[in-house]
Amino acid sequence: MMPASPNRRDWLRSFGLGFGGIALADIVARDAAAGAADDVALPAGSHGGVLDGFHVPPRAKRVIYLFQSGGPSQLDLFDHKPLLGEKDGEQLPDSVRGGQRLTGMSGNQSSIPLAASPYAFARHGDSGAWVSELLPHTAAIADKLCFVRSMYTESINHGPGVTFMQSGSQIPGRPSIGAWLDYGLGTVQDDLPSFVVLITKNKGGQPLMSHLWGAGFLPTKHQAVRFRSGADPVLYVSNPPGVSAANRRQVLDGLRDLHEHEFATTPDAEIQARIANYEMAFRMQSSVPDVTNLADEPEHVLDMYGPDARDPGTFAANCLLARRLAERGVRFIQLYHQDWDHHGGLKKGIVSECRQTDQPAAALVQDLAQRGMLDDTLVVWGGEFGRTNYCQGLYKPGQEFGRDHHPRCFTVWMAGGGIRPGTTYGETCEFGYNIVRDGVHVHDFHATMLHLLGIDHERLTYKFQGRRYRLTDVHGRVVEGILA
Questions:
Q1: pLDDT tens figures, 110-146
Q2: Label partner for 256 (CA 20 to 30 A): which of 160, 189, 384, 388?
């Protein structure tokens, strides 16, 4: 007797179970592999993170990221192109542009004239790194730095570009780098947040939105705490007039009881995050005044950072504060410095920004080194994209001019924390327009940063709306060529 043919319902049931078995086998295999690889213990006292151990031996304990918002011109700072001097004022060849889209600010120009840098370049240190005359202090520490001249990004405008560099996505709503680290590794101290943001005061340029240091879809306790200049470095932490520390403690105890009662009936992670934030704020009432008070800094240290170091909220003062935060166990310290967006008036603008940032950034590296902290502190300097090799608008050689946005290639430098010092990585074409060797995508940059902190970028994930997200999305590779 012939067996009965399966009906459609039986076939779909067996087909679905087959897929379910495949998925289950994959999940079990990945979990087993992850458990086998987590064999590097986290530091004693670490708590609050989801990782039980490092995926790889960490080279860095912390990051200080000096973000230069607006897109510094790599052609006037780090990427020396003598050919632009020879062809100053000539048209950008179509063969070099390669049909790349331009912004609306220069895309309709009838003329695309090449613009030479008005600044002299020289080689510095045993490494022979090319650095502009605008950055004498950076040039003096060239052998401690790794210049990555082949960075590239997908965004051509500031909002998406800065968001991409900070969160791995051009669309706001994803967790920032520091939030990912806090989620994965937690903290090693109780009285300061593990993620702090500092912004240079009184700066123009493109606006900086709080989503750049936000937690995205992670619990809000992982977002940064912003420190400001002034009497109250962290808003609403100090007690108002007439409220004592004992009164504040009593109020917080009552709030905690109410939140815990609410959590018992509505187990929402944000309720626990709210409790944690209130408790951290209370502890910061004593720790924040201590870390922000520079009175115990010797005069020679203040002098090293420059004259602005005594003015709270300047880039120099923030660099010094970043070192103090790093000493106290803060894992990710993000400095933002605006106003590098020089579509016009570049010669005046870039001189001003370099004057504000060159000495403090170099001093930070030197200060960390002399304290024995540079080896396990990763310092990063860079913006969201570069600038064009041609002039935006009319161009008259020798006169003031501007450069448009350029995502195809730009330069960042890195130091300490497992980075190979005295290195120049990557190469752009003789026009400074395209990468010809060792391109580094933003996701590669993030993957390398996480690797130096002991994290496999493919394995630090968070499930949101049915999908597992990560900082590097579905791309990224560790750039082995810049590792020590």
A1: 999 999 999 999 999 999 999 999 999 999 999 999 9
A2: 189
